[in-house]
Design brief:
Layout: H1 13-24, H2 30-39, H3 44-59, H4 69-83, H5 85-105, H6 108-112, H7 114-126, H8 131-144, H9 149-157, E1 166-169, E2 172-175, H10 176-187, E3 199-200, E4 206-207, E5 209-212, E6 227-230, H11 232-240, E7 243-249, E8 252-257, E9 260-265
Antiparallel strand pairs: 1-2, 3-4, 5-6, 7-8, 8-9
Helix pairs in contact: 1-2, 1-3, 2-3, 3-5, 4-5, 4-7, 5-7, 8-10, 9-10
The structure holds zinc ion.
Protein name: Restriction endonuclease
GO molecular function: endonuclease activity
Domain HNH nuclease: 180-236
Length: 269
């Protein structure tokens, strides 16, 4: 009778991590690591798959076979704790390649990978380097500017908190939040909603920022009625100044900031 496949449960994650690191650091060959995991009751193929994927992750190479969500989460945390931020970024790059590979395969896998994208963004947000977000935002600004205003308004109006965290445009995967901000920037004419200023960049485009009314750390969402388009000065004043909320609904936000009253339209038009 064939033994039933043992599921890779949480208590096994530390062993998989340690054995793979031993192989990665060339303390012994892959077969030894695999045998050690099989001794714990992990199926041979599964052990091989996990060691291979985690090793690819440590090398920053996109892996093909899948690991479960909580294992991925655990490994990223361990990589960050043990090897630091630079290695975490490599691992994130591997995860991104993995996800893009699956997204490119078929549309039907797009949503099922949403949990993994969430993990990806969770760790990307804690790495101090925000280049990736800036690059994405620049790229999205250029894409969005070619879109029809009506399509943008429709897209923003129909946006729900439960929508997938990632979005595919021209076969590239972007963070949905970044697309929302690019769309709002375009809709607001790249002007600060508090002072109307525009900041011209050398390439002829405009620099402006998205600010959250309810901060993300307080579980503020990424829907249009929670995002103001502000110049860097007003963004910081809004985040750090003395803010008194006066009234707010889906189309309006009235507040007092450092003694000055602002009445900002949140209408999508
Ligand atoms: Zn301003």
């Amino acid at each position: 009778m064939q033994q039933e496949k043992k599921k890779v449960t949480e208590n096994l994650f530390p062993y998989i991590f340690n054995e793979t690191v031993a192989f990665y650091q060339k303390r012994y060959v892959k077969n030894v690591a695999k045998k050690n995991l099989v001794k714990l009751g992990i199926n041979e193929n599964t052990a091989s798959r996990y060691i291979g994927s985690l090793d690819d992750m440590l090398h920053g190479e996109g892996y093909k076979s899948t690991m479960n969500l909580s294992a991925t989460d655990y490994f990223l945390q361990k990589i960050s704790d043990k090897f630091g931020e630079e290695k975490l970024q490599k691992a994130l790059s591997a995860l991104k390649q993995h996800l893009e590979y699956y997204t490119s395969l078929k549309d039907r896998t797009k949503n099922s990978k949403n949990g993994l994208w969430e993990i990806y963004y969770k760790y990307r947000n804690v790495t101090k380097i925000e280049d990736e977000d800036d690059l994405e935002q620049n790229c999205l600004d250029k894409i969005v500017i070619k879109e029809d205003i009506k399509a943008i308004v429709d897209d923003l109006m129909n946006l729900k908190v439960s929508d997938p965290v990632s979005v595919v445009i021209n076969k590239k995967v972007f963070k949905r939040d970044n697309k929302t901000i690019s769309q709002l920037k375009y809709l607001r004419g790249y002007c600060c909603q508090m002072c109307g200023i525009q900041i011209l960049k050398a390439d002829g485009s405009f620099y402006i920022e998205g600010a959250h009314i309810d901060p993300k750390k307080d579980w503020g969402n990424e829907l249009p009625n929670n995002i103001l388009i502000l110049c860097p000065n007003h963004h910081k004043e809004f985040d750090y100044g003395n803010l008194e909320r006066i009234s707010r609904d889906d189309e309006h936000f009235k507040f007092k900031l450092n003694g000055e009253i602002y009445d900002i339209s949140l209408k999508l038009e």
